[in-house]
Every structure is written in structure tokens, then in C-alpha cells.
Specification:
It is found in: Nucleus. InterPro entries: CWC21, mRNA_splic_Cwf21_dom. Keywords: mRNA processing, mRNA splicing, Nucleus, Spliceosome. This protein has 98 residues and is mainly α. The chain is 39% helix and 0% strand. It is elongated.
Length: 98
Amino acid sequence: MDNGIGLNTPRGSGTNGYIQSNKFFVKPKTNRVTDSTKPFEADQGSAGLTTRKPNKEILEHDRKRQIELKLVILEDKLAEQGYTESEIADKLAHQVDH
């Protein structure tokens, strides 16, 4: 037994008495505030990140996707109303132009 850890004697325990240290034990941090740490209020809101402007290509792609979605919805409505394929194509082409 070393420092109060382990068995007094390994006899009868089915082990050889070898003690391993726990390599994955994380010691708890102390909550002491020192002069080197910033006060909590000084770090609010920023989270250490700067705001980035959105990528213009991504915004343009998203805008085109929204237009394409509206055209698909219009195409489905026109098909349900019984328009022919050529009439649907004409109406969709007219919507794309405007």
C-alpha cells in the first residue's frame, strides 16, 4: 500500500497488486479569478469571431433556386388545371422573361 492507495497485501485478491495510474483523469479546474483573466463582461457578444459578409455567388445561387422553385410550383398548378405541355411551356417562358 502506497500513499493509501491499493491493497495492503495482494494475497487472496487474485491480483498481483500492481497499481496503474488513470491517464484519462481530468483534474478539475479551480474557479479562482486572477488578474491575468479578463472579466466576464469584457468578452460578451463577440465570441472571438468576426462577422463575415455573405458570398455573392451563394446569394445569387439561392435567388435562382427560389425562382426555379416558383416555376416548378406554377408548372404543377398549370398541369393540374389541364393545360397542354405547349401551353405550360409558353406560360413558363413568359414568367421567366418577367
